[in-house]
């Protein structure tokens, strides 16, 4: 008797717990009259997408755009595990592929491209002028880890230039890499043009030709179970529109 | 239903525990939440076990970079724990035994690394010990020492984050210890240092050991402060948690394997220690 | 060598102020009720409680109060012994000498000799939790003596023992204290311990000395209700005129002769009870109401209320014969030869 009671609870309580945990995610159930669209976007899109969200809300009074910014790979994992998002904008085709492979997204469209630059502290203590200077063992270099898009791009660019660079650290994302330059802990790093612009003068960007070999495509797609289907499509349209392109270009992105 | 057996005669089928402690069935008010709590803690581990790529496990385990990260993790966590013991036990003693102005504030400050998001802790360490940090600047200028991006940096970050666990645990043990033993030692001619070394420390040893275990476990799992302050480079600063995080970006299965290795090693070590060191005198 | 001390400690709602003078080889017991300040006095002597200005301790003519506890030539036996739980009996005893800079081997040799002296040579390797109460007490004594103290302090040395062990340990402790040539101050609330162990009693109440003297003096001439109760006497304060002492409205005849303020004391066994007023002298006779009756050893102790409160010890046979019960009115008398009077 006692045991059966306990076993019933053992089933019910974890279920309740699970409900409580997922329940915090989205607001209303699916259907007409949905006024909220949830967008998962790569961390490098934080500034531009926040601005686009405001434009979208102004154009669609009564709607709210909620953002989840983070590492593209983490976001992709979360979507595959059932996170309730309507739109996914990734920093690389590879991370988008995780989601499309799981048949959770519409066909992605590339909406922006990002090019690497050499970022140096504003006072450029090591006197870095071009990519070759990064091979100097006295110059401390930070790169993104190869597992994340900016790291993959860095490897590609360095390969294209035929250079061998030994970094002091392989950072987990581009913002962390940029922080190391901002704090002056390293003398140079390879980050995106957009990050250099976003730092607002705290780091100086140096363009280099080999960056052209390692341009990063940013794909966007609506997600299959999107509760806010129509709104989701309209948000993607805004990103792909001229207005969207202007906002992205201003931040340093290139048109596809 | 569950009934409480009120000092009644021993039941024919339940006699084994009777006589040694107050009899009666286990109170479900305690047992039920306890089991739920256990399930809550253990189920995620079960999730990892279920999703682990068992067929390729051995192959993945023996990859050199896994062993390298594991070795680095164990080394850094152990040295960080030693550093915490060296600095944290005296700090706990100061907080528990010396009445100085501002003691409450200092005690609150000790817990800062617990509250601070580890990444912020890492940034804070950079601002002090980094190349352009308050102290780091002169460290490099005078001695040519830089901590970021070195194994020593990993140890610094881990010690920073893990030390509160040790200090709080040891301070609690010190406060619970009967101070009259210390007085007795003083009347026998023991200086405060001798009292600490020969009486206080042996008496709070279980607390110190428990604190060290917590501290070590925290250091072993440290991620945020480490990657921020010490960076991430194979062989010098890439500990297991960093390897796990990066693996998650591209290869979630590899991340699971790495996590399981870390878990298995720490569970084996802690379980082994528990019987040998964490027992009362 | 001797102890001369003025112990002064002030705490909220408590003030200790007493002067001690103890000769070498003498054992003094501080006796008093709970909260009287006995233990505080002992802690002040040991340097574990700070004294207020005016406090002063001189041992062998040298100031002690300026030294911290660990620099004082003292040995302390604590109430629950406080043997270090992580050290063996031998290492507990060797602890003091080691702290004073004696080498390990020599300290252990000395400790072994001391354990032998207290009859615990076989228990040298035992951890304190394996020792019985009596054994732990003896280890604590050996540990205190191991530092060759000039001042030995014992706080309720027998309080934690059961009645049987107590008897045995008390006589052993007495022997060891007799062998000790320094100053001994012990604190107890047990009059028997005090009388057996000490050469002199100092009774403390509310932080000051109310009476002192040899055990027999104190036992015969108590000066406070607390002491009277301890030594089992009825005690009253009155005014003497020759062999008569006036206590309130009562008049006592005594065998002693004195004038002025006086104490009158008599043992409960000297009180006789009657159902009706006995014939003869009206002195030492009063009418009382029975307040309570309790067993007291082989006898019965009757609590009397009336012009004076008093205890009377009678035999169970007398109790039955007189048919006494609480609330009854009785006549009580005490013989003049058993009534002592002494100056207040």
Briefly summarize what is shown.
The complex is a heterotrimer of chains A (256), B (281) and C (344). Chain A is of the alpha/beta class and 256 residues long. Chain A has helices at 2-23, 46-59, 72-80, 93-101, 149-161, 174-182, 193-198, 229-240, 242-250; strands at residues 36-42, 64-70, 87-89, 109-114, 116-121, 141-144, 169-171, 188-192, 203-206, 216-222.
Write the layout of secondary structure elements.
The complex is a heterotrimer of chains A (256), B (281) and C (344).
Chain A: H1 2-23, E1 36-42, H2 46-59, E2 64-70, H3 72-80, E3 87-89, H4 93-101, E4 109-114, E5 116-121, E6 141-144, H5 149-161, E7 169-171, H6 174-182, E8 188-192, H7 193-198, E9 203-206, E10 216-222, H8 229-240, H9 242-250
Parallel strand pairs in A: 1-2, 1-3, 6-7, 6-8
Antiparallel strand pairs in A: 3-10, 4-10, 5-8, 5-9
Chain B: H1 28-51, H2 57-61, H3 64-97, H4 103-110, H5 112-115, H6 118-129, H7 136-143, H8 151-176, H9 180-187, H10 192-203, H11 205-221, H12 224-229, H13 240-250, H14 252-276
Helix pairs in contact in B: 3-8, 3-11, 8-11, 9-10, 13-14
Chain C: E1 3-11, E2 14-22, E3 27-31, H1 38-46, E4 56-59, E5 62-63, E6 74-77, H2 89-99, H3 104-117, H4 133-146, E7 151-155, H5 163-179, E8 183-188, H6 191-197, E9 200-205, E10 208-213, H7 215-220, H8 225-231, E11 234-247, E12 250-266, E13 271-274, E14 285-296, E15 299-305, E16 310-314, H9 316-322, E17 329-334, E18 340-343
Parallel strand pairs in C: 3-8, 3-9, 6-7, 7-8
Antiparallel strand pairs in C: 1-2, 1-4, 4-5, 9-10, 11-12, 12-18, 13-17, 14-15, 14-17, 15-16
The backbone outline of chain B, from C-alpha atoms, is: globular
The CATH class of chain B is Mainly Alpha
* Average pLDDT for all residues of chain C: 91
* SSE arrangement of chain C, N to C: EEEHEEEHHHEHEHEEHHEEEEEEHEE
**Biggest interface:** A-B, 32 and 35 residues
CATH fold-level label of the largest domain in chain C = Rossmann fold
Helix run count of chain C: 9
Strand order of the largest sheet of chain C: 6-7-8-3-9-10
Instruction: Let me know the CATH homologous superfamily of chain B.
Output: MetI-like
Task: Write structural notes for this entry.
The complex is a heterotrimer of chains A (256), B (281) and C (344). Chain A is of the alpha/beta class. Chain A has two domains: 36-113 and 216-250, Periplasmic binding protein-like II (D-Maltodextrin-Binding Protein, domain 2, 3-Layer(aba) Sandwich); 116-214, 3-Layer(aba) Sandwich (D-Maltodextrin-Binding Protein, domain 2). Chain A has helices spanning 2-23, 46-59, 72-80, 93-101, 149-161, 174-182, 193-198, 229-240, 242-250, and strands spanning 36-42, 64-70, 87-89, 109-114, 116-121, 141-144, 169-171, 188-192, 203-206, 216-222. In chain A, the strands form two sheets. A five-stranded mixed sheet of chain A has the order 2-1-3-10-4. Chain A has a five-stranded mixed sheet with strand order 7-6-8-5-9. The model of chain A is unreliable at 1-32 (pLDDT under 50). Chain B has a single domain, classed as MetI-like (MetI-like fold), CATH 1.10.3720. Chain B is 71% helix and 0% strand. Chain B is built from 14 helices and no strands. Chain B has helices spanning 28-51, 57-61, 64-97, 103-110, 112-115, 118-129, 136-143, 151-176, 180-187, 192-203, 205-221, 224-229, 240-250, 252-276. Helices cover 27% and strands 36% of the residues of chain C. Chain C has nine helices and 18 strands. Chain C has a six-stranded mixed sheet, sandwiched between helices. Chain C has a five-stranded antiparallel sheet with strand order 13-17-14-15-16. Chain A binds chain B through residues 1-2, 5-6, 9-10, 13-14, 17, 71, 73-74, 77, 94, 140, 142, 145, 147-148, 167-172, 176, 179-180, 183-186, and chain B through 1-2, 28, 32, 35-36, 39-40, 43, 123, 126-127, 130-132, 148-149, 227-228, 230-234, 237-238, 242, 245-252.
